[in-house]
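If you are new to this repository, start here. Below is one unmodified record pulled from the training split, so you can see the exact layout before writing a loader.
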Amino acid sequence: MRQELATGSGASDVSAKWDYALWQMAQECSRLIDHYCQLEENAFLASGSETRYVDGNGRAELWLPWPATSISAVSVDEDANETYTSWTQGTDYFRWPYQDSGMPTSNPITRLDVNLLTTGSKSVWYAGQRS
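And here is the target side for that same chain:
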């Protein structure tokens, strides 16, 4: 970040003594983005692997309440008995915005779409709490 700041300001170098101040400014900018996007604080903070639950909406498109950088697994409670069935990315659902596998993207995943093109039985995200 120091090099980018130096290049952008026309300076030849920015000393390491500014690291803490730069870190603080980056943190403040991040909180402003959270607030502007009406997300909880640290919504964009990568925090490793975690399980999150989303209420189903009975539709083919499910908007996520937070942006995701990656999704490793999706499981769905298809009959409201708290037993979850694994869905397969590309077969049962797609991540949105759509991206080719293996291609990097700077856009976070903000929606999951049921794959309506397959002959499978999936047609909607089942409505209900934590479904």
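Two things worth knowing about this chain: The longest strand covers residues 61-68. Strands lie at 61-68, 74-76, 85-87, 93-96, 109-114.
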